[in-house]
Amino acid sequence: MDDVTKQILFDKFEIISCVKKDESTGVYIAHHIYLGKKIFLKTLDQAKVVDEAVLKRFKREAKVLARLDHPNIIKVFDFGTHDHFFYISFEYFESSDLRKMMQQGSFADEQKIDILIRILKGLDYAHQNKIVHRDLKPENILINAKGQVKIADFGLAQGVNESGLTSKSSIVGTPGYMSPEQILGEKLTSQSDLFSFGVIAYELFVGENPFLGSDVGVTINNILTFDESRIPASLVNVPAPLNEIIVGLLKRSKKDRIISAGEILQRLGEKESQAAESIKVEKNKGRKFKTAAVFVLAAVILVIFIFRPRHTSEVANIEKPLQQIPDTSVVDSAGKNILLQTSSGVEMAEKPSGNRLEKLFKSPPQGNITAKENPNIPGKLFVRCSPWAEIFIDSVKIDTTPLSDTLRVAAGRRQLVLKHPDYPAYIRKIVVEPMRTKVVTVNLDTLFGFLNCKIYPWGEIFIDGKAQGQSPFPRPICLQPGRHLIKVKNPQYQDIEEYIQINRRDTTEYELDFEQVVAAKRGKSAPNN
Q1: What's the DSSP call for residue 272?
Q2: Which pLDDT band holds residue 280 (cuts at 50, 70, 90)?
């Protein structure tokens, strides 16, 4: 363990490089031999641990993360012991933390809000599973080049009903992001994490921590005695309703603080949180609807849908004035190149050539020309997709979310396709109007269903004839809702084929034991005595 040149650890991890190491702990980039994946490996030498609390926190992190499976929370593959070592293997997530990214440069407001929304979704999921992080700070928020966000370092995390491993005389957490009740050693709830989240949001928009002092003592005193009435003045440039949300998060008393991450998501215009939706499901279980009423309502909706005015289709309730979102997209006068200016500079998007390009993207008209005078004036498109996606318009790759500005698109009916490697393609017809901005918001996590395959000893999985890879999989396979044909192959056994039903937002469990299938067939073929 003291020498990284030893390539294999614990009989299943091939070390690629060492990230950091001290006397008792180590973090490595490794290859998980059994899973066939690049991973992060965290190790703890129990023989060299002086403080027993360190070992307990290490084990707690593994158990907590093993319970959580969410795209905005770092995923644990496995954990265990080997000799006197304890280890955890995490998904490999090539990224930087939010602290470093804030130091490197500024984000557009849309990017900041998108980051905060993804943190909230991860928090909401953890809180619904009765887990309080207790150490939320920019260093524990990981972001990659594609804008994916994951909450990490659950070493201090604690179940809501746990008595805790620390005494009331000790403080765990990071000063500057700790809630007043955390400093005072009181019982922590999900609202304690929300206070820390409020500090992060404040810092992301204002550029400084509102409580940071010259030393730890001053910082803690600032948190316990700060004047709440001064906060709104610092948030004058923060877009609504986020400024009000931050004020509601930084309340000293929990009874005055915003209750849940789900509430914030709703106030930011996101779809209902898992908590709200689960409550709806429970309520609906006890309701009985009359069949006749359902058919009448469905008929009315169908009539409205068929006879609604064509020109209002696709654009109702989501159009915004052109000037509300800044535009830095450029189309050259010849219509040959589409240039999209991003936060990192000017990049050229993939595009077709000739008349098709000119039809899709038109140069901005010269002078003050209205839409009535020239119907060919382009409109604008702004796409927000969670977790992230490549944007295609009429088969042309344009950009990747999160966007920092609008895209100029020729007016008319267009096909919008959003592609993410972990989800089926999202396809939608949209209408872009001249001199109007169309805003499309998509949450991929809510549109599809999932298939969790447990195959013994292993198998190659095919869904509707398309190869999905070899089991075991680190996470469920994302599929379109509906009926699918699954085929499982293992050269030592006969292929297995059967149909499965995938429901939207549900996870279907599929278990197959080749040995049991063989035994069952032998039993059927045995002669009766």
Answers
A1: P
A2: very low
Look at residue 327 and tell me whether its pLDDT is greater than 60: no
Active-site residue, from 135, 193, 399, 405: 135
Amino acid letter, residue 490: N
Question: CA 138, CA 151: separation in Å to the nearest integer?
Answer: 9
Domains of the chain are: 8-91 (3.30.200.20), 97-278 (1.10.510.10), 311-363+374-444 (2.60.40), 448-525 (2.60.40)
Burial zone of 379 (CB within 10 Å; 0-12 exposed, 13-18 middle, 19+ buried): buried
- Asked whether 219 and 183 are in contact (CB, 8 A), the reply is no
CA distance 310 to 316: 11
Distance in angstroms (rounded) separating the CA atoms of residues 36 and 470: 9
User: Residue 462 is inside which H or E element, if any?
Assistant: strand 460-463
Helix 274-285 and helix 109-128: axis angle, to 10°? 50
SS3 92: coil
Residues present in the chain in total: 529
For the beta carbon of residue 11, count every other beta carbon within 10 angstroms. 8
For the cut 70, the answer to whether the pLDDT of residue 480 exceeds it is: yes
- Rounded Cα distance, 12 and 257, in Å: 47
Residue 135 a catalytic site member:
yes
CB 51 within 8 A of CB 58: no
What is 1-39 written as a DSSP string?
Answer: ---TT--EETTTEEEEEEEEE-SSEEEEEEEETTTTEEE
Residue 362 pairs in a beta bridge with none
Query: 66-94: per-residue pLDDT in tens?
Result: 778 899 999 888 888 888 899 999 899 88
pLDDT exceeds cutoff 70 at 353: no
Give the strand pairing for 345-348 and 319-321. unpaired
DSSP 332: -
For residue 390, list its beta bridge partners: 400, 419
Q: Do the Cβ atoms of 249 and 198 come closer than 8 Å?
A: yes
Q: Are 49 and 86 in contact (CB under 8 A)?
A: no
For residues 173 and 495, what is the distance between their CA atoms, to the nearest angstrom? Answer: 53
Q: Report the alpha-carbon distance of residue 302 to residue 294 in Å, rounded.
A: 12
DSSP 469-485: EESSPSSPEEE-SEEEE
Residue 84 CA to residue 63 CA, distance in Å, equals 19
Name the pairing type of β-strands 319-321 and 436-443: antiparallel
Q: Classify residue 74 as exposed, middle or buried by CB count within 10 Å of its CB (0-12, 13-18, 19+).
A: buried
Strands 412-419 and 407-409: unpaired
CA 477/CA 505 separation, integer angstroms: 12
User: Contact, 410 vs 364, CB < 8 A?
Assistant: no
Kindly state the helix (H) or strand (E) to which residue 66 belongs, with its residue range.
helix 52-67
